[in-house]
Amino acid sequence: xxxxxxxxxxxxxxxxxxxxxxxxxxxxxxxxxxxxxxxxxxxxxxxxxxxxxxxxxxxxxxxxxxxxxxx
Length: 71
Fold this sequence. Notes:
The protein has one domain (about 5-70). The protein has helices at about 5-20, 20-70. The N and C termini lie far apart (about 70 Å). The model has no long low-confidence stretch (mean pLDDT about 90). It is mainly alpha-helical. The longest helix has about 50 residues, at about 20-70. It has two helices and no strands. Pfam families: UPF0542 (PF15086). Keywords: Coiled coil, Membrane, Transmembrane, Transmembrane helix. It is found in: Membrane. It comes from Panthera pardus.
C-alpha cells in the first residue's frame, strides 16, 4: 500500500495557486458548488420536516388540552 505524500501534494497545490490563481480559484469554485447545492437541498428538506413535526406537536397539544377541558 502506497502512502500519500501530503507535504508534496500541499506544495503542489500552493505552487499551482501561486502560478495560476484564476485557474485555481475556478477549479475550487467548480468543485465546491455541488456541495453547496446539496447543502441547500438537504437544509430545505430539514426545515420542512421540522415544520411538520412542530405542526403535529401543536395539534397533539391542542387535542390534549381539549381532553383535559372535557374532564
